[in-house]
Design goal:
Layout: H1 2-33, E1 45-52, H2 54-66, E2 70-76, H3 80-94, E3 103-107, H4 112-118, H5 120-123, E4 126-131, H6 148-160, E5 163-166, H7 169-176, H8 179-183, H9 195-198, E6 202-204, H10 220-223, E7 227-233, E8 236-242, E9 249-251, E10 300-304, H11 314-326, E11 331-335, H12 346-354, E12 358-361, H13 367-376, E13 379-381, H14 391-398, E14 402-406, H15 411-414, E15 420-421, H16 424-436, H17 438-443, H18 455-465
Helix pairs in contact: 3-4, 4-6, 11-12, 11-16
Length: about 475
C-alpha cells in the first residue's frame, strides 16, 4: 500500500510539473506572437493594434520606442475586415492580466466595446481611442456595398472610450457630423443624440511623424538654400531667386518668346495684381541658358507613395500618367506604397503601358531605401478619395518634393492653396508644364511647414495623453 501511495504521489508531482511547463510554454508562445512582454513593474500603458501595418504600425512603434512603460499587443496587417470583426476576441485571450496597466491606447480598427465587455479588468483602465480614419465616410463604389458594421463598431468604441483622439480636424468633424445620418440606416428604433455624448470626449492630435535625417540622400539641388517664386508685376513677369545669404534679387533671364500661361503652370506665390481674365493671364518664358542647372536636363521624377487600394484612386492617377506618356512628355515614375491581398487591376495594366517610364515599382520595406527614392523625386502626387492625414505626402515634402493634392479631404488643413488642385484636368495641366520645366520645380522650396506634424513638436502632448493616475477601483 505504501509503495502504491508513493507511486501515485510521484505521478501527481510529474503531472503538476508537466501542466506548469505546458502553461509556461503557451504563455511564452502567445507573448511572442501577439504581445511583447516586459517586466510587470514597468508596464503602465497597454498599446493594442489590430492592424499592425502602415501608419498604424508607425505610430505604435514610435510610442513604444519613445515613451517608457508601454507594452504592445498586435495583429499583422492582413485581412482588415476580419480584424475589425474579430480582433477583440483574440485580444481577450492574448493579453495577460496585469495590475500594472493604467492606460489602454488603441486604434479604431478594434471594437473597444467588445473588448472591455470580454475583459472587465481592461475596462477599468483609462481608455484612449485613436482614429487614423473613420468608416462613416469611407468611400464605396455603391452605397449598398457599405458594411454597416464597421462604422457601428467605431460609434460603440467611442461610447465606451474615455478619450477619443483624431489625427485631423477633418477626420473628427466628418465623423461627428455623420453619426446621425449613418444611424438612419437602421430600419427602426434608431438611437438618437449620440453626437453630443461623444463630442466632449474628442480632441485633435495630429499624427506625430519622426522625420529622419535625410541630408545624406539629398541631391545637390535640394541642398541649395534658394527658392524660386514667380511674381507678376504689372505687365512683366520675373523669376525671383532668394538665397540664404543674399537678399532677394531679380534675374532678368526671360527670353522674348512667349510660353504657356503661368496660371496653367506652376502656382508659386502669385501676385494679387494678376488679372483673373483668361486673356489677361501673364506668360512665363524659359530662363536663360546660363541659369539652367544641370539637374534641369533630367526628366521630371514623379512619385506616388500610397496604399495600392481603390480609395487612393489609382485609376485617375495612372490615367494622367498615360496621357503624359502619349503626349511624349519626359518623366519617370516611382510607384511605392504597401500592397495587400486585393490589388486593383489598374496596377498591372499601368506597369505594362508605362514601360520604360517606370523607375521604381512596388513597396520598399526598408526605410532608408524608401527615403532615398523620395529624396530623388521631384513631385509627389495624391489622387486620394479617402484621406484623413497623409503621412506619405508629408514625408515626401520633408524630402524636398513638390506636393500636388486634391482640394478636398484633409489636404486644405495641411497644405497651402498653391499645392491643391480641384479637378483631374487641373492636375494634368500642372504636370504637363512641370514636365517641360523640371528645373523650376526643383528649385522651388515648400511654402508651408512640416514641423508642427513632427514628433519633436507633438511628443509632449502624447506623453501627457498617456499619463494617468491609478484609479481607486483598480
Amino acid at each position: 500500500m505504501l509503495r502504491i501511495a508513493l507511486q501515485r504521489f510521484a505521478s501527481d508531482r510529474v503531472g503538476i510539473r508537466l501542466r506548469r511547463l505546458h502553461t509556461a510554454m503557451c504563455t511564452n508562445c502567445r507573448s511572442q506572437t501577439t504581445t511583447e512582454a516586459r517586466p510587470a513593474a514597468t508596464m503602465s500603458v497597454l498599446l493594442i493594434e489590430a492592424f499592425y501595418g502602415g501608419s498604424h504600425k508607425q505610430l505604435m512603434d514610435l510610442l513604444k520606442g519613445e515613451i517608457e512603460g508601454c507594452v504592445l499587443s498586435s495583429l499583422p496587417a492582413k485581412k482588415w475586415h476580419w480584424r475589425a470583426r474579430t480582433a477583440a476576441l483574440h485580444f481577450m485571450q492574448a493579453i495577460p492580466p496585469s495590475d500594472s496597466y493604467r492606460v489602454l491606447f488603441t486604434s479604431s480598427v478594434l471594437n473597444l466595446a467588445e473588448l472591455v465587455a470580454l475583459r472587465p479588468d481592461l475596462g477599468k483602465l483609462r481608455k484612449i481611442l485613436y482614429f487614423h480614419e473613420n468608416q462613416l465616410v469611407y468611400p464605396v463604389r455603391k452605397n449598398q456595398d457599405r458594411d454597416f458594421q464597421y462604422g457601428y463598431n467605431q460609434i460603440l468604441s467611442c461610447l465606451v472610450a474615455d478619450v477619443v483622439v483624431f489625427n485631423s480636424a477633418f477626420n473628427m468633424e466628418s465623423f461627428l457630423s455623420s453619426i446621425s445620418k449613418f444611424l438612419k440606416l437602421i430600419p427602426d428604433h434608431r438611437p438618437k443624440n449620440l453626437e453630443p455624448v461623444i463630442r466632449p470626449k474628442c480632441q485633435v492630435m495630429h499624427f506625430p511623424i519622426l522625420f529622419p535625417d535625410i541630408s545624406r540622400f539629398l541631391p545637390e539641388h535640394k541642398k541649395a538654400p534658394q527658392k524660386i517664386s514667380i511674381e507678376c508685376l504689372g505687365h512683366h513677369t520675373r523669376i525671383n531667386d532668394h538665397s540664404q545669404n543674399e537678399s532677394a534679387k531679380v534675374e532678368p533671364a526671360l527670353s522674348s518668346q512667349v510660353k504657356e500661361p503661368l496660371e496653367e503652370s506652376i502656382d508659386i506665390v502669385m501676385s494679387s495684381t494678376k488679372s483673373s481674365s483668361e486673356d489677361d493671364r501673364q506668360a512665363i518664358s524659359e530662363p536663360s541658358p546660363s541659369s539652367i542647372h544641370t539637374e534641369s536636363q533630367r526628366p521630371l521624377h514623379i512619385v506616388w507613395p500610397h496604399r495600392w487600394e481603390h480609395d487612393k484612386d489609382p485609376e485617375t492617377f495612372f490615367k494622367i500618367m498615360m496621357k503624359l506618356k502619349d503626349q511624349g512628355l519626359p518623366f519617370c515614375l516611382s510607384v511605392l506604397g504597401e500592397m495587400f491581398t486585393d490589388v486593383p487591376d489598374i496596377f498591372s495594366e499601368a506597369r505594362t503601358s508605362l514601360g520604360s517610364a517606370v523607375s521604381h515599382w512596388g513597396f520598399l520595406p526598408g526605410r532608408e531605401e524608401y527615403f532615398r527614392v523620395l529624396c530623388a523625386a521631384d513631385v509627389v502626387i495624391s489622387t486620394a478619395k479617402h484621406e484623413f492625414f497623409g503621412v506619405a505626402m508629408l514625408e515626401a515634402v520633408h524630402c524636398g518634393c513638390y506636393p500636388l493634392c486634391p482640394k478636398a479631404l484633409v489636404y486644405p488643413e495641411i497644405f497651402p492653396a498653391e499645392y491643391l488642385y480641384s479637378t483631374p484636368e487641373q492636375l494634368l495641366k500642372k504636370l504637363q508644364n512641370f514636365c517641360k520645366r523640371p528645373g523650376i520645380v526643383r528649385r522651388h522650396r515648400f511654402q508651408g511647414a512640416t514641423a508642427p506634424y513632427s514628433w519633436a513638436s507633438l511628443s509632449g502632448e502624447f506623453r501627457s495623453l498617456l499619463t494617468a493616475e491609478p484609479r481607486k477601483d483598480l
